[in-house]
């Protein structure tokens, strides 16, 4: 089943934009009267009939609406430092969308090699990946933030907040624990089955090539973030971010 995206359909809009219209009519050769499926980017799937197969502005009418299409039973925010090679961050954004993520926040740390982040291409990748993996919701791409500002903004959150890094934490008086163990403890399987019990949001932080600085780690620990490890292997930023995303996914969907 092919999916098309309309940001306006949730508020009564019945048009596809030029890019989606061209793909639907010129590439896939859909015609008037045919049924197509449209997602709104916030979780719903719409079964629609084409009224005007205009390759510049296709018009449709809504036949049926399905909520929670392709949803996952958790809320995950991934705050990840974009590496110097931005293609690697784009790969992470695509794969995390396929697995299941709700918010992606690019981070700039003290040791970040990349100092500029342009969101336009990543936003297009998120839309494409959501459609390809049959999800009604498209992850939100937040504006890039400095690590210290991000930590301050989430200091009082009720979310399960975890920070992944390579440095040791003995000097900070806190234990670095495996992410999988932390997730199992926070979200034990429900007594009635394998689904996890009512989850609170999860926020995971992945640092830059040079890791988080000692000052950034200390700020995180002081405001209640749990230091976690992703195993003994030294991972690239995007690999660590995908491993963490998958750990949350399997906690709830295994």
Q: Please state the average pLDDT score.
A: 92
How many domains in all? 2
Strand content: 15-25%
CATH fold-level topology of the largest domain:
Alpha/beta knot
The largest pleated sheet is described as: 8 strands, parallel
Q: Which radius of gyration do the C-alpha atoms yield?
A: 20 Å
Tell me the number of strands.
12
For this structure, what is the CATH class of the largest domain?
Alpha Beta
Class by SSE composition: alpha/beta
H/E element sequence = EHEEEEHEHEEHEEHEHEH
pLDDT < 50 stretches: none
Task: Compute the separation of the termini in Å.
Answer: 25 Å
- Number of helical segments? 7
Provide an overview of this structure.
- This protein has 254 residues and is of the alpha/beta class.
- It folds into two domains: 3-66, Beta Barrel (Ribosomal Protein L25, Chain P), CATH 2.40.240.20; 76-253, Alpha/beta knot.
- The protein contains seven helices and twelve strands.
- α2 packs parallel to α7 and α5 packs parallel to α7.
- The protein is elongated and about 70 Å long.
- The two termini are 25 Å apart.
- The model has no long low-confidence stretch (mean pLDDT 92).
Briefly summarize what is shown.
With 254 residues, this protein is an alpha/beta fold.
């Amino acid at each position: 089943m092919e999916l098309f995206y309309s940001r306006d359909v949730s508020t009564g809009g019945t048009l596809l934009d030029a890019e989606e219209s061209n793909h639907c009519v010129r590439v896939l050769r859909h015609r008037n009267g045919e049924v197509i499926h449209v997602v709104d980017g916030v979780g719903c799937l719409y079964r629609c009939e084409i009224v005007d197969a205009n390759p510049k502005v296709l018009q449709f009418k809504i036949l049926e609406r399905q909520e929670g299409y392709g949803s996952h039973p958790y809320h995950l925010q991934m705050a990840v430092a974009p590496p110097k090679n931005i293609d690697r961050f784009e790969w992470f954004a695509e794969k995390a969308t396929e697995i299941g993520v709700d918010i992606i926040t690019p981070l700039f740390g003290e040791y970040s090699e990349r100092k500029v982040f342009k969101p336009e291409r990543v936003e297009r990748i998120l839309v494409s990946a959501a459609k390809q993996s049959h999800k009604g919701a498209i992850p939100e791409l937040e504006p890039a933030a400095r690590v210290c500002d991000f930590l301050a903004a989430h200091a009082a959150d009720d979310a399960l907040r975890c920070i992944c890094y390579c440095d040791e934490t003995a000097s900070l008086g806190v234990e670095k624990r495996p992410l999988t163990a932390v997730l199992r403890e926070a979200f034990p399987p429900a007594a009635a089955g394998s689904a996890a019990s009512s989850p609170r949001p999860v926020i995971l932080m992945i640092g830059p090539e040079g890791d988080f600085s000692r000052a950034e780690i200390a700020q995180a620990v002081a405001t209640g973030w749990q230091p976690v490890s992703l195993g003994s292997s030294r991972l690239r930023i995007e690999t660590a971010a995908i491993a963490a995303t998958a750990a949350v996914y399997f906690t709830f969907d295994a």
